[in-house]
Known about the structure:
3 helices, five-stranded mixed β-sheet, 275 residues, alpha+beta, four-stranded antiparallel β-sheet, globular
Amino acid sequence: xxxxxxxxxxxxxxKSPYAYVKQKKKLQVLTGKRHDGRSPxxxxxxxxxxxxxxxxxxxxxxxxxxxxxxxxxxxxxxxxRKEDFSMKGIINCVFKYATFSCRYRRSYxxxxxxxxxxxxxxxxxxxxVCMHKFPKAQVDIYVTVLQNDGSALAAAITCASVALANAxxxxxxxxxxxxxxxxxxxVLVDPTESExxxxxxxxxxxxxxxxxxxxPSLYQVSAxxxxxxxxxxxxxxxxNLCGNTSQxxxxxxxxxxxxxxxxxxxxxxxxxxxx
Length: 275
């Protein structure tokens, strides 16, 4: 019988590559030890850069250790559907995990979790945008999580805020996103994927998570979302900690936008000299 010599026969049985990855230790609630050695109130190292997508009106890219998010902003443009017409501007947010971003492969189309994330992202950004400055038009925000190692929504809020400012959209203030994990009386800032709250686990009271969108220069909360059963005093402590952490993020956002403007001016000046 003739065989196809150009095709390599694959193995009949395969194993997931994650079977060979060293598993991270679970959170030790009593001691508060974290697998990366951070203290409970310490953020992961952050890299933030604006103007990374040439085809978009504005864009940004953020890395929080192994959490990597990219955002592109298009518009303002004409409203696509007549039923969405409004005398003030409209913001359209699309949050999507890349198929390879998580431990298990994600779908190409938005699932219910991603649609919920899109709504939460819109709630966090809408109060900071001057909607009346682009009437009868809409701004499209596309957020893609390239790698997820926890706190993806908080990173997306920060990244989208910088992308909006990079696009020249009028805003009252930038929005810094921060997420915390609550385990009894322990509050962990910027949790990783192994530390995040999982609703399917059998968790008692005061186990959950809080994600905050905060406008640092105005000292105002743009949006807040929480998971789990948390007492009022504990969630109040978590919100205050998120607000203080967002204040420390604000200079990073400002420096990123300042560098983007400086680079554009240098490029424009060099082009004018060459011509």
